[in-house]
Amino acid sequence: MKNLKLWLSVALITAFVSANAQEDKKYKIHTVAFYNLENLFDTVNDTEKNDEASPMMEIKANREEIYKKKVHNMARVISDIGSETTGNAPAIIGICEVENVDVVEDVANDPLLLSHDYGIVHFESPDRRGIDVGLMYQKDLFQPISKSSHTLKIYDDNSKKRVYTRDQLLVSGKLDGDLIHIIVNHWPSRSGGEARSRSKRMAAAKLNKHIIDSLQVIDPYAKVITMGDLNDDPTNASVKDVLKAKAKKKNVAIKGIYNPFINMFKKQGLGTTAYRDAWSLFDQIMVTKPLIETDFSSYRYYKAGIYNKNYLSNKKGRYKGYPLRSFADGGFTDGFSDHFPVYIFLVKEIK
Questions:
Q1: For residue 309, what is the DSSP state?
Q2: What is the torsional sign of CA 336, 141, 303, 12?
Q3: 253-309: per-residue pLDDT in tens?
Q4: What gap in Å lies between CA 86 and CA 76, rounded to an integer?
Q5: What pLDDT, on the 0 to 100 scale, is given for residue 23?
Q6: What is the CA angle 280-284-288, rounded to 5?
Q7: Neighbours of 125 (CB within 10 A)
Q8: What is the rounded CA–CA span in Å between residue 120 and residue 64?
Protein backbone atom coordinates (compact mmCIF):
# COMPACT_ATOMS: atom_id res chain seq x y z
CA MET A 1 0.00 0.00 0.00
CA LYS A 2 2.83 2.39 0.86
CA ASN A 3 4.49 1.95 -2.54
CA LEU A 4 1.16 2.26 -4.30
CA LYS A 5 0.41 5.55 -2.57
CA LEU A 6 3.85 6.93 -3.37
CA TRP A 7 3.38 5.99 -6.99
CA LEU A 8 0.00 7.67 -7.03
CA SER A 9 1.45 10.77 -5.36
CA VAL A 10 3.36 11.39 -8.58
CA ALA A 11 0.45 10.21 -10.68
CA LEU A 12 0.67 10.81 -14.39
CA ILE A 13 -2.04 13.14 -15.62
CA THR A 14 -2.89 13.98 -19.18
CA ALA A 15 -4.54 17.39 -19.36
CA PHE A 16 -4.52 20.77 -20.97
CA VAL A 17 -2.62 22.61 -18.26
CA SER A 18 -2.13 25.66 -20.45
CA ALA A 19 -3.09 27.00 -23.83
CA ASN A 20 0.13 25.59 -25.25
CA ALA A 21 -0.07 22.16 -23.67
CA GLN A 22 -0.18 19.08 -25.84
CA GLU A 23 -2.77 16.42 -25.07
CA ASP A 24 -0.18 13.66 -24.95
CA LYS A 25 2.07 15.36 -22.39
CA LYS A 26 2.29 13.75 -18.98
CA TYR A 27 2.75 15.39 -15.62
CA LYS A 28 3.57 14.74 -12.00
CA ILE A 29 1.07 16.37 -9.67
CA HIS A 30 1.14 17.24 -5.95
CA THR A 31 -1.26 18.94 -3.57
CA VAL A 32 -0.14 21.84 -1.39
CA ALA A 33 -2.81 22.73 1.17
CA PHE A 34 -3.70 24.80 4.23
CA TYR A 35 -6.11 23.95 7.04
CA ASN A 36 -7.20 25.74 10.21
CA LEU A 37 -7.55 22.85 12.68
CA GLU A 38 -9.89 24.80 15.01
CA ASN A 39 -8.51 24.74 18.53
CA LEU A 40 -6.51 21.53 18.40
CA PHE A 41 -5.49 21.46 22.07
CA ASP A 42 -4.42 18.48 24.11
CA THR A 43 -5.94 17.52 27.47
CA VAL A 44 -2.97 18.60 29.62
CA ASN A 45 -3.02 21.91 31.46
CA ASP A 46 0.05 23.91 30.43
CA THR A 47 0.72 26.40 33.21
CA GLU A 48 2.61 28.68 30.81
CA LYS A 49 -0.36 29.08 28.47
CA ASN A 50 -3.96 30.18 28.71
CA ASP A 51 -5.09 26.76 27.52
CA GLU A 52 -7.69 26.54 30.30
CA ALA A 53 -9.90 28.72 28.08
CA SER A 54 -9.67 26.30 25.14
CA PRO A 55 -12.80 24.34 24.19
CA MET A 56 -10.97 21.08 24.92
CA MET A 57 -10.07 22.05 28.48
CA GLU A 58 -13.57 23.36 29.15
CA ILE A 59 -15.03 19.91 28.48
CA LYS A 60 -15.54 18.12 31.80
CA ALA A 61 -16.27 14.51 30.79
CA ASN A 62 -14.66 12.03 28.37
CA ARG A 63 -11.97 14.55 27.46
CA GLU A 64 -9.41 11.95 26.37
CA GLU A 65 -11.93 10.17 24.15
CA ILE A 66 -13.03 13.46 22.62
CA TYR A 67 -9.42 14.47 21.98
CA LYS A 68 -8.79 11.22 20.09
CA LYS A 69 -11.91 11.80 17.97
CA LYS A 70 -10.84 15.36 17.21
CA VAL A 71 -7.36 14.20 16.12
CA HIS A 72 -8.85 11.44 13.96
CA ASN A 73 -11.26 13.89 12.31
CA MET A 74 -8.38 16.22 11.45
CA ALA A 75 -6.43 13.31 9.97
CA ARG A 76 -9.46 12.26 7.91
CA VAL A 77 -9.74 15.67 6.27
CA ILE A 78 -6.02 15.98 5.61
CA SER A 79 -5.90 12.52 4.05
CA ASP A 80 -8.73 13.49 1.68
CA ILE A 81 -7.57 16.89 0.40
CA GLY A 82 -6.64 16.60 -3.27
CA SER A 83 -6.73 12.81 -3.20
CA GLU A 84 -9.36 12.53 -5.94
CA THR A 85 -6.88 14.09 -8.37
CA THR A 86 -3.48 12.94 -7.09
CA GLY A 87 -4.37 9.63 -5.42
CA ASN A 88 -2.44 10.91 -2.40
CA ALA A 89 -2.77 13.17 0.63
CA PRO A 90 -1.09 16.61 0.38
CA ALA A 91 2.65 16.57 -0.19
CA ILE A 92 2.77 19.71 1.95
CA ILE A 93 0.13 21.20 4.26
CA GLY A 94 0.27 24.31 6.41
CA ILE A 95 -1.80 24.24 9.57
CA CYS A 96 -2.85 26.65 12.30
CA GLU A 97 -4.62 26.69 15.68
CA VAL A 98 -2.46 23.92 17.11
CA GLU A 99 -1.33 24.08 20.73
CA ASN A 100 2.05 22.38 20.39
CA VAL A 101 4.09 19.92 18.38
CA ASP A 102 2.61 16.98 20.34
CA VAL A 103 -0.88 17.46 18.91
CA VAL A 104 0.55 17.69 15.38
CA GLU A 105 2.46 14.45 15.96
CA ASP A 106 -0.77 12.81 17.10
CA VAL A 107 -2.44 13.83 13.83
CA ALA A 108 0.52 12.61 11.76
CA ASN A 109 0.49 9.28 13.63
CA ASP A 110 -3.21 8.67 13.10
CA PRO A 111 -3.79 5.42 11.14
CA LEU A 112 -5.16 7.42 8.21
CA LEU A 113 -1.90 9.34 7.80
CA LEU A 114 0.77 7.08 9.27
CA SER A 115 1.73 5.47 5.95
CA HIS A 116 2.40 8.92 4.44
CA ASP A 117 5.28 9.42 6.91
CA TYR A 118 4.72 13.11 7.58
CA GLY A 119 7.51 15.27 8.93
CA ILE A 120 6.66 18.31 11.03
CA VAL A 121 8.02 21.85 11.33
CA HIS A 122 6.76 23.74 14.38
CA PHE A 123 7.91 26.58 16.62
CA GLU A 124 6.27 27.78 19.82
CA SER A 125 4.93 31.29 19.33
CA PRO A 126 3.99 33.94 21.91
CA ASP A 127 0.28 33.93 21.06
CA ARG A 128 -1.76 34.66 24.19
CA ARG A 129 -4.18 31.81 23.43
CA GLY A 130 -1.30 29.37 23.09
CA ILE A 131 -1.92 28.51 19.44
CA ASP A 132 0.72 28.19 16.73
CA VAL A 133 1.16 27.53 13.02
CA GLY A 134 2.99 24.52 11.62
CA LEU A 135 3.87 22.59 8.50
CA MET A 136 3.44 18.90 7.69
CA TYR A 137 5.22 17.34 4.72
CA GLN A 138 5.64 13.89 3.27
CA LYS A 139 9.31 13.06 3.81
CA ASP A 140 9.60 11.13 0.55
CA LEU A 141 8.39 14.13 -1.45
CA PHE A 142 9.69 17.25 0.30
CA GLN A 143 13.01 17.77 2.08
CA PRO A 144 13.35 20.94 4.23
CA ILE A 145 16.65 22.80 3.93
CA SER A 146 16.00 25.68 6.33
CA LYS A 147 13.25 26.82 8.69
CA SER A 148 12.68 29.98 10.70
CA SER A 149 10.03 31.67 12.81
CA HIS A 150 9.29 35.38 12.35
CA THR A 151 7.71 37.34 15.19
CA LEU A 152 4.98 39.89 14.55
CA LYS A 153 5.18 42.78 17.02
CA ILE A 154 1.90 44.68 17.24
CA TYR A 155 0.38 46.93 19.88
CA ASP A 156 -3.09 47.77 21.15
CA ASP A 157 -4.25 51.12 19.77
CA ASN A 158 -5.60 52.27 23.13
CA SER A 159 -3.39 50.79 25.84
CA LYS A 160 -0.26 50.74 23.64
CA LYS A 161 0.59 47.39 25.20
CA ARG A 162 2.00 44.64 23.04
CA VAL A 163 -0.51 42.17 21.59
CA TYR A 164 0.97 38.67 21.51
CA THR A 165 0.00 36.80 18.38
CA ARG A 166 1.20 34.03 16.07
CA ASP A 167 4.64 34.01 14.47
CA GLN A 168 4.97 33.48 10.72
CA LEU A 169 6.73 30.27 9.69
CA LEU A 170 9.14 30.07 6.77
CA VAL A 171 10.29 26.69 5.45
CA SER A 172 12.54 26.35 2.41
CA GLY A 173 13.08 22.95 0.86
CA LYS A 174 13.04 20.79 -2.23
CA LEU A 175 9.88 19.29 -3.67
CA ASP A 176 11.02 16.50 -5.91
CA GLY A 177 14.24 18.46 -6.51
CA ASP A 178 12.65 21.90 -6.97
CA LEU A 179 13.50 24.60 -4.41
CA ILE A 180 10.29 26.04 -2.94
CA HIS A 181 9.78 28.48 -0.06
CA ILE A 182 6.62 28.17 2.04
CA ILE A 183 5.29 30.74 4.50
CA VAL A 184 2.52 29.73 6.92
CA ASN A 185 0.40 32.50 8.43
CA HIS A 186 -2.36 33.02 10.97
CA TRP A 187 -2.94 36.77 11.05
CA PRO A 188 -4.57 38.64 13.98
CA SER A 189 -8.31 38.16 14.41
CA ARG A 190 -11.10 40.67 13.91
CA SER A 191 -11.77 40.87 17.64
CA GLY A 192 -13.23 44.29 18.40
CA GLY A 193 -14.39 44.68 14.81
CA GLU A 194 -12.82 44.67 11.37
CA ALA A 195 -11.96 48.37 11.29
CA ARG A 196 -10.54 48.52 14.79
CA SER A 197 -8.32 45.47 14.25
CA ARG A 198 -7.35 46.27 10.65
CA SER A 199 -3.97 47.79 11.49
CA LYS A 200 -2.85 44.53 13.09
CA ARG A 201 -3.47 42.57 9.90
CA MET A 202 -1.83 45.29 7.85
CA ALA A 203 1.24 44.82 10.05
CA ALA A 204 1.05 41.05 9.49
CA ALA A 205 0.88 41.60 5.74
CA LYS A 206 3.94 43.88 5.90
CA LEU A 207 5.89 41.22 7.76
CA ASN A 208 4.82 38.64 5.18
CA LYS A 209 5.88 40.95 2.35
CA HIS A 210 9.22 41.54 4.09
CA ILE A 211 9.87 37.77 4.23
CA ILE A 212 9.01 37.41 0.54
CA ASP A 213 11.16 40.42 -0.39
CA SER A 214 14.12 38.98 1.52
CA LEU A 215 13.86 35.76 -0.48
CA GLN A 216 13.60 37.68 -3.75
CA VAL A 217 16.67 39.78 -2.94
CA ILE A 218 18.65 36.54 -2.97
CA ASP A 219 16.79 35.16 -5.98
CA PRO A 220 14.29 37.30 -7.97
CA TYR A 221 12.90 34.05 -9.38
CA ALA A 222 12.29 32.42 -6.00
CA LYS A 223 9.28 30.13 -5.96
CA VAL A 224 7.36 31.32 -2.90
CA ILE A 225 4.04 30.01 -1.62
CA THR A 226 2.41 32.05 1.15
CA MET A 227 -0.65 30.54 2.81
CA GLY A 228 -2.80 30.85 5.85
CA ASP A 229 -5.84 32.03 7.73
CA LEU A 230 -5.46 35.75 7.11
CA ASN A 231 -8.66 36.86 8.86
CA ASP A 232 -9.02 39.09 5.81
CA ASP A 233 -10.65 38.48 2.45
CA PRO A 234 -8.68 38.61 -0.82
CA THR A 235 -10.16 42.07 -1.44
CA ASN A 236 -9.05 43.62 1.86
CA ALA A 237 -6.22 46.16 1.98
CA SER A 238 -3.75 43.78 3.63
CA VAL A 239 -3.83 41.46 0.62
CA LYS A 240 -4.71 43.94 -2.11
CA ASP A 241 -2.53 46.91 -1.15
CA VAL A 242 0.31 45.51 0.97
CA LEU A 243 0.95 42.19 -0.76
CA LYS A 244 -0.38 43.65 -4.03
CA ALA A 245 -1.71 40.22 -4.99
CA LYS A 246 -3.27 40.03 -8.45
CA ALA A 247 -6.30 38.15 -9.71
CA LYS A 248 -4.98 37.71 -13.24
CA LYS A 249 -1.72 35.99 -14.10
CA LYS A 250 -0.96 38.48 -16.88
CA ASN A 251 -0.90 41.32 -14.34
CA VAL A 252 1.74 39.71 -12.12
CA ALA A 253 5.13 41.46 -12.37
CA ILE A 254 8.52 39.76 -11.98
CA LYS A 255 8.46 39.89 -8.16
CA GLY A 256 4.68 39.96 -7.93
CA ILE A 257 2.13 37.66 -6.32
CA TYR A 258 -0.79 35.76 -7.84
CA ASN A 259 -3.86 35.03 -5.74
CA PRO A 260 -6.26 32.53 -7.35
CA PHE A 261 -8.77 33.05 -4.53
CA ILE A 262 -9.62 36.65 -5.51
CA ASN A 263 -12.04 35.66 -8.25
CA MET A 264 -13.44 32.78 -6.22
CA PHE A 265 -14.50 35.38 -3.67
CA LYS A 266 -15.42 38.31 -5.95
CA LYS A 267 -17.03 36.51 -8.86
CA GLN A 268 -18.20 33.21 -7.41
CA GLY A 269 -19.08 34.31 -3.90
CA LEU A 270 -17.20 31.39 -2.35
CA GLY A 271 -15.83 31.32 1.17
CA THR A 272 -14.05 29.18 3.73
CA THR A 273 -15.83 30.36 6.87
CA ALA A 274 -19.24 31.86 7.61
CA TYR A 275 -20.56 34.27 10.22
CA ARG A 276 -24.03 35.81 10.51
CA ASP A 277 -25.08 34.49 7.11
CA ALA A 278 -22.09 36.02 5.35
CA TRP A 279 -19.20 34.09 3.82
CA SER A 280 -15.57 35.11 4.17
CA LEU A 281 -12.61 33.69 2.28
CA PHE A 282 -9.99 34.12 5.00
CA ASP A 283 -8.00 31.01 4.04
CA GLN A 284 -5.84 31.63 0.98
CA ILE A 285 -2.78 30.35 -0.86
CA MET A 286 -0.78 32.74 -3.04
CA VAL A 287 2.25 32.17 -5.25
CA THR A 288 5.00 34.29 -6.78
CA LYS A 289 5.39 34.72 -10.53
CA PRO A 290 7.88 31.88 -11.20
CA LEU A 291 5.17 29.42 -10.14
CA ILE A 292 2.74 30.63 -12.84
CA GLU A 293 5.11 30.44 -15.81
CA THR A 294 4.01 28.17 -18.65
CA ASP A 295 7.22 26.20 -18.85
CA PHE A 296 6.40 23.02 -16.93
CA SER A 297 9.95 21.67 -16.87
CA SER A 298 9.80 22.41 -13.13
CA TYR A 299 6.84 22.61 -10.75
CA ARG A 300 4.24 25.25 -11.62
CA TYR A 301 0.86 26.23 -10.27
CA TYR A 302 -1.97 24.33 -11.98
CA LYS A 303 -5.22 25.19 -10.19
CA ALA A 304 -6.67 26.06 -6.77
CA GLY A 305 -9.71 25.06 -4.81
CA ILE A 306 -11.65 25.07 -1.55
CA TYR A 307 -12.07 21.61 -0.07
CA ASN A 308 -15.73 21.83 0.96
CA LYS A 309 -16.99 18.29 0.58
CA ASN A 310 -20.47 17.57 1.89
CA TYR A 311 -19.31 15.80 5.04
CA LEU A 312 -17.56 18.98 6.20
CA SER A 313 -20.79 21.01 6.30
CA ASN A 314 -23.78 21.30 8.61
CA LYS A 315 -26.69 19.41 7.11
CA LYS A 316 -29.62 21.23 8.73
CA GLY A 317 -30.73 23.94 11.08
CA ARG A 318 -29.74 27.56 11.39
CA TYR A 319 -26.16 26.89 10.26
CA LYS A 320 -26.98 24.64 7.31
CA GLY A 321 -24.13 24.80 4.80
CA TYR A 322 -21.69 26.32 7.30
CA PRO A 323 -18.48 24.42 8.06
CA LEU A 324 -19.24 21.73 10.66
CA ARG A 325 -17.08 22.92 13.53
CA SER A 326 -15.72 20.67 16.28
CA PHE A 327 -16.87 22.67 19.28
CA ALA A 328 -20.16 24.44 19.96
CA ASP A 329 -22.23 25.33 23.04
CA GLY A 330 -19.52 24.10 25.39
CA GLY A 331 -19.35 20.61 23.89
CA PHE A 332 -17.84 18.51 21.12
CA THR A 333 -19.95 18.09 17.98
CA ASP A 334 -17.80 15.31 16.43
CA GLY A 335 -17.29 17.82 13.63
CA PHE A 336 -14.16 19.13 11.97
CA SER A 337 -13.39 22.85 11.80
CA ASP A 338 -15.09 26.21 11.44
CA HIS A 339 -12.96 26.70 8.31
CA PHE A 340 -12.83 24.73 5.07
CA PRO A 341 -9.30 23.81 3.88
CA VAL A 342 -7.84 25.32 0.72
CA TYR A 343 -5.38 23.80 -1.72
CA ILE A 344 -3.44 24.23 -4.93
CA PHE A 345 -2.04 21.67 -7.34
CA LEU A 346 1.54 21.88 -8.56
CA VAL A 347 2.42 20.06 -11.77
CA LYS A 348 5.64 19.21 -13.57
CA GLU A 349 6.10 17.71 -17.01
CA ILE A 350 7.65 14.28 -17.24
CA LYS A 351 10.11 14.10 -20.10
A1: -
A2: negative
A3: 999 999 999 999 999 999 999 998 899 999 999 999 999 999 999 999 999 999 999
A4: 16
A5: 58
A6: 145
A7: 20
A8: 23
